[in-house]
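A favour, since you know our structure tokens better than I do. Go ahead and set the record down below.
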Amino acid sequence: MILDSSLHYASLLEVAALIASRDVSPVALTEQMLTRIAAVDPSLHAYLRVTADSALAEAERAEQEIWSGRYRGPLHGVPIAIKDLFHTRGVPSTFGSLAYKDFVAEEDATAVRRLRMAGAVILGRLHLHEGAYGEHHPKLPKCLNPWNSDYWPGGSSSGSGAATAAGLCFGSLGTDTGGSIRFPSAANGVTGLKPTWGRTSRYGVFPLADSLDTIGPMARNAADAAALFDVLAGADPRDPTTLSAPVPDHRGGLNGSLGARGLRIGIDEAYLAWGTDMETATALRAALAVFQDLGAVLVPVKVPDRAAATDAQIVITDAECARFHHPVYRTNASKFGPHLTAAIERGLGYTSLALTNAYIVRDRFKGEMTRLFADVDALISPIYPMVGARYDEMARHVADLPRFLGYTAPFNVSGSPCITFPCGLASVGVPLGIQLIGPHLSEPALFKAVHAYQQATDWHTRRPPGF
């Protein structure tokens, strides 16, 4: 079967429709994607490991099932990829660190198992910051931004963002503890969802901070992300922190351009002005105008203490990170990179008083956000306090975490769902992204709103030049 040479940039649901109608062979599509990865990824380093043999076997199985009338749904036969911290039976999982390079899981993470049950084809394992924190390990090649290699591709799910944007998969899985789905989604011009804490299972996933970590989809548009989330979401007996609330049909509930009608979007002018550059501010205002044209209503609000919540997120992350890594770190410290080492050392040094205060601040901020959402359906916010981030300036940004995480970390503290989506292109050639934040379990409304926005705009259809 001869495939369109640009099919790698089709949306997940477009490819799913072609597979379901038998116009595209999952095997031929997987072969084409593997060929593209081999040609393109050496210049991006989005993948840490390509699992070609198992991907082709999964594609063959999917093709046999589909062509015999046993179609499982929109992920069946579709090539996707996963961040290299999801346990996958028999496949090394490095966590982006030399300290864990020999780890091989004996069973799949729940998220991986659910993808397999949906018939997805897993192309490989995607690059990430070491331990899902800070920066890439210095002895591993850095993942690059396909839009501009001088700029950070976001993190920690760097490979997920870069691969999805560059047409090296049709969707991907990431994790988010302080912005790790949202940063790379914004940096690469893709759509990513950080779900409500507990909405997706963390079983079989290397943790950064157990009480903050979330697992979510990254895709080229809201509809594709919804299709992935429909498979991932839901209670898991192996993760007692997962929520028992029924999972609605997020993809089926999309309502075209009507999805934002009546949506009350909270606007805090002081919060938006705190650290936003002019280009992002202009793009955000233009996005608000689109939402208003679609029937949304803008409501003035006051965001609770962002600074205190960000500080609490940093303390909790460091402490829980140290708790997980300490058994390996105390005997193999030299295998850890400087950024993860710094987090572990800070975490080991916090007093019980500092930790107690951080958890109290978290509970207070969560309650304050619940009250805020009594009056609005969503809050709009930037992701970065600047237009992108140059790689040669990352050390400065990481050294000032409270500022760098100020628009993302608070909503890990509150456990709120956040959807990130592209809203423009900066003068330096990298995408601009913003987020909608909602109350717990408001993912259906967030997907509807962004899907409506994407019916009225084309930022999500832009592709990095040269790829």
